[in-house]
Structure prediction request, 217 residues.
Amino acid sequence: MDFATLLTSRYTCKHYDPNKKISKEDFEKILEAGRLSPSAVNLQPWHFFVASTPEAKAKIKDAVMPMNMERFENCSHVVVLCAKTDATLEYISKVVDKEDADGRFGRKPEAKVGQDAGKKNFSSIHRISASEIAAWNARNTYITLASMLYQAHDLGIDSTAVEGMYPQVADDLLKLKEQGLTCLCMIFFGYRSKDDSNVLENRPKSRLDLKDVVTYL
Ligand SMILES: Cc1cc2nc3c(=O)[nH]c(=O)nc-3n(C[C@H](O)[C@H](O)[C@H](O)COP(=O)(O)O)c2cc1C
Prediction:
């Protein structure tokens, strides 16, 4: 599907068919779309927890608000979208080492040194407080949400971005603080039930006009 069609035809699924499961192969493509998302200085400050079995869902159920419970229970897969709470110097060096292994610096060792310093310098602007670095990481992590929603749609898989949940409860249930992570939201994936009321035929897409959201300078 071309991207313009993806944008106009994706919608938020409200009712899932509990009998339809996403294949492992397709779900990995969705995760891959998250992994390949861009981030400031390529810090990739995210982590995705996945629940697809009743047992796995039970571990996070208490973090779901009642309004989203039916879709949580019937969807095929849940991603708990988490952001790092910090950008430690050790973590930044790990990213730079991976970039090196992936061939980003060619045969120029000085390029690696420069990248390492640049990333540490740029992230230090946001390390002025614990809340600011966490907010910066969260802003970057939300980009993966969009990537995964559109990749899913391209595969014919429906989805629901879910902020109707209790992030602090997820933090506690999954012991996220101890892992240097915090929960932002969840994403449900699956296949719409045949009576999903939110389909575009019932509820056409609505957005403000371009003139309301764009200013040419
Ligand atoms: C960050 C975010 C959080 C959302 N939280 C919920 C939610 O908790 N439950 C729900 O049913 N829909 C949720 N939505 C879906 C929005 O209501 C929906 O995207 C919006 O109304 C536009 O409709 P569309 O996605 O069908 O185009 C959320 C969407 C986003 C992007």
